[in-house]
Amino acid sequence: MRTTVRRHGIGPSLRHGVDVREARWDDRERRWHLETNDGPYSAPVLVLATGPWRRPRWPEVPGLTEFDGPVVHTARWDPSVRLTGRRIAVIGSGASAVQVVPAIQERAADVHVFQRTAHWLLPKPDHGIPGWLRAPGAQRVLRAAQYRVQEGLGYAFRHPRLVRPVEAAARAHLRRAVRDPGLRRALTPDYRLGCKRLLTSSTYYPALSRPHVRLHPTALAEVDGNRVIGADGSEAEADVIVLATGFHVGELPLARNVHGTHGRTLRDTWDGDGPQAYLGTSVSGFPNLFLLLGPNVLTGSTSTVTVVEGQLAHLTAALAHLRTAGKASLDLRPAVQARFNAAVQEALSTTVYNSGGCSSYYFSPSGRNTFCWPWSTGQLLHHLNHFDPDAYTWTAPGPTPACPVNEEEITA
């Protein structure tokens, strides 16, 4: 990242340690005004690049705040916490747990993993890349092959009957890695593969099979002193609690503090059915606002980097059109947003994300899938790379602000 900053000379534009407290669209000036701990900022364009994996989810469990020892979330790791020779309780069994359990079990005296839901797990193809595969032509072939494998998974997720061979591979991986039939049963999911995020690891199952590691196939119910108690009544004594409980994925940071036309916030606009946007990028009623990794642009098999690059192409095309057309602002047409989201929800209804028999962070509290893209990555990139000016209303420049502050486009 430092190399990129130097190469493109963007260092003077960066502001570190700046918290955005409020953003408000001024319809008269056709500008965004921001209040921050670094003072006011003003700009014609606002980009929310805060991402969905930002605010850690802390479980609301009686006694957790009174635990006798350290409590650390995997997303806010405290390297000063001593793990060697200590009893550790890991809460959660998803992507974070799959990474952290193999790493800490080597040092811990005992590890107790509390698993509310078993996850589908495939072996991770993690190996060295020989020199001949680093040649540009070989790299392109390898990356194209990897892309096709991921898109093949995505196709199966859109046609749930096709996930059975992948489930068979996951079960074979479990049988090879775990000899204890009771532990295997506890680690076998009861829903279709792809309904939740598909995980990859070649070290998690072996770690759970170690004699000093115990799986508790139950949710955490209570903490009493140094006792960690599961919903099934099982207990473990712990010196450290590690929360591998993920993030508030569907809650866009700043949504309650970003005010569009008529002063309405993003949170108020989304209240009810949950977040909605057009191509995960534009929201009607919020002129010159762009989201990165907004609602309904990701899947269980698509690279987030690929999606962000497509959204940036869409964003830059919009800015270019603003400048060449001599306009000051663009605002997504409400009918375009409504049609797009209706089509997305209809297409999602037959995917494994919606019909696989599980609950996941893909859904808002209203029960609406606000995370997943229901078609191929190629279709998403096609839409993002073909900017449609007719999807927006365009406004001519307003009066020049009397005292422009920090005249720049802002990325929050």
Automatic annotation (TrEMBL):
Keywords of the record, alphabetical order, are: Monooxygenase, Oxidoreductase
Query: Entry's InterPro entries?
Result: FAD-bind_Monooxygenase_sf, FAD/NAD-bd_sf
Judging by the UniProt lineage, the source's domain of life is Bacteria
Q: Origin organism of this chain? A: Streptomyces capitiformicae
Q: What is this protein called?
A: Cyclohexanone monooxygenase
Per the record, a Pfam family?
A: Pyr_redox_3
In its UniProt record, a GO molecular function of this protein is: monooxygenase activity
